[in-house]
Amino acid sequence: MFSKETYSSRREKLRSLLKSEEGIAVFIGNVEAPAQYKDNCYKFRQDSTWLYYFGIDKPGFAAILDLDSGAETIYADDVSIDDIIWMGPQPSVAEQASLVGVSHSAPYSKLDWAVSQAIIQGRPIHTIPPSRYYNTLKLQSLGIDKPSEALIRAIISMRLVKAPEEIVELDAAGVLGQKMHTVARKGIRIGRIEQEIVGEMEGVTLSEGWGVSFATILTQHGEVFHNHGHSAKIEPGRLMVIDAGAESNSHYASDFTRTYPTGGHYTPKQRDIYQIVYDCHELAFSMIRPGVAYRDVHLAASRLMLDRLSQLGLVKGDLEEMVASGVAGLFMPHGLGHNMGLDVHDMEDLGEDLVGYDPDQTRAKQLGLGSLRMARRLVPGNVITDEPGIYFIPDLIEMWKKEGRPFVNYAALREGYYDFGGIRIEDDVLVTSDGARRLGGTRLPASPDEVEAAMAADRG
Ligand code: GLY
């Protein structure tokens, strides 16, 4: 938790951004989510916007900011003797509220009364889109039927620019994520089961942090993006994509991807493709600086990728025409990166386009570019991922072939790449005042030579 001044000044700034608005802003923190019965709950994770403005990392809290009077009230229930029996003594709601600079508190049930009074008085009610089903139901029961774009935009404008104390937390989450990845790389051995490595790497973040920042991707089928099945045996000659990150105890996220040759050495074909992805990754990093639109960085990486794939004979035609028609999307159907912060895909619950696009930018429809979640002109304090990849997805390639899409050497892909899998390389990047720096500690091995040397050292 940060200092009470941090939370007070964030709320003050929020109110100043909303000075042309009237009414109340209602914030609903998360509640416990039972897994089967009410007392066996999933591990509690607080709502990130709540954490940003109110910090209290406990279930069953809500708050109202009165935009007209400036009054702030936190709503939650003090523990009962039953709670004390099961959970031990807890600080009072008033004590917890004072730690984040809020001087008024009331029982949770009074939230309904306060909102209903505002509705009766015809005052505007500002909320954000609910990210959990409970919050959806709660907002419905409060009679709040739609989120407030003014509030959403104000929150996004603040959370997009990380303050120095947040960057410290993001660096720490990066260090922990890199530690997870190092343990995973050392665990890669032919004949082991993928799940064994997942357990080893997730143990690192469970020992030192909150846990994983998203469900770990560890697979020899990197062409399947969110492949969470880990039952396969590690086979020789394959590529293993490991996309995983840590969430720190303060709930800041990291997100790294590396792609390893299971036997410790890339085949010449794997190395050719890996080198392209690596060069795109480096190009993107070299372009990141204030004022540059991340959409243009995505397009520059796509251009380089297509140029190099054409040298391998996998695509053919005029480079600019290929870029414009979105051929890169066949090989990289995702975007170059996303925002990061308290969420691994920061604030996407508030609306992907509002978070990732400047008001004058329109999201493309093309595969690949259309999946780009961060297109904005960069400003210092943005934290984004740089994660190009190349994947050979047989069903997608066959579909494009059937549709007669030009520029692609379908025969070469079918003959040589349908069992290739995929490659992705990802680092987390802070936009600084004059450029960029990678978050975390010592960078994970990334170039093909660095990866092979690290794996050789791991194996003695
Ligand atoms: N690293 C997982 C994702 O961005 O979806």
Characterize this entry briefly.
The protein has 460 residues and is of the alpha+beta class.
Shape, per Cα inertia axes: globular
Let me know the number of strands: 15
CATH architecture of the largest domain: Alpha-Beta Complex
Ligands in the structure?
glycine
CATH class of the largest domain: Alpha Beta
The number of domains is: 2
Uncertain ranges: none
**What class would the helix/strand composition place it in?**
alpha+beta
What kind of sheet is the major sheet? 5 strands, mixed
Helix content: 40-55%
How far apart are the first and last residues' alpha carbons, in Å? 42 Å
Percent range for β-strand residues = 5-15%
Report the CATH superfamily of the largest domain.
Answer: Creatinase/methionine aminopeptidase superfamily
Radius of gyration: 24 Å
Strand order of the largest sheet: 4-3-2-1-5
Number of helices: 17
Per the CATH scheme, the topology name of the largest domain is: Creatine Amidinohydrolase
Mean pLDDT: 97
Question: Helices and strands in order, then pairings?
Answer:
Elements: H1 4-17, E1 24-28, H2 48-54, E2 62-66, E3 72-75, H3 81-87, H4 93-99, E4 104-106, H5 109-120, E5 125-126, H6 133-141, H7 149-159, H8 164-187, H9 194-208, E6 211-212, E7 217-219, E8 239-244, E9 246-247, E10 256-261, H10 268-287, H11 294-311, H12 319-324, H13 328-331, H14 352-356, E11 383-386, E12 389-391, H15 394-402, H16 410-416, E13 422-424, E14 427-431, E15 436-438, H17 448-458
Helix pairs in contact: 1-7, 8-9, 10-11
The protein binds glycine.
Glycine binds near residues 214, 243, 255 and 338.
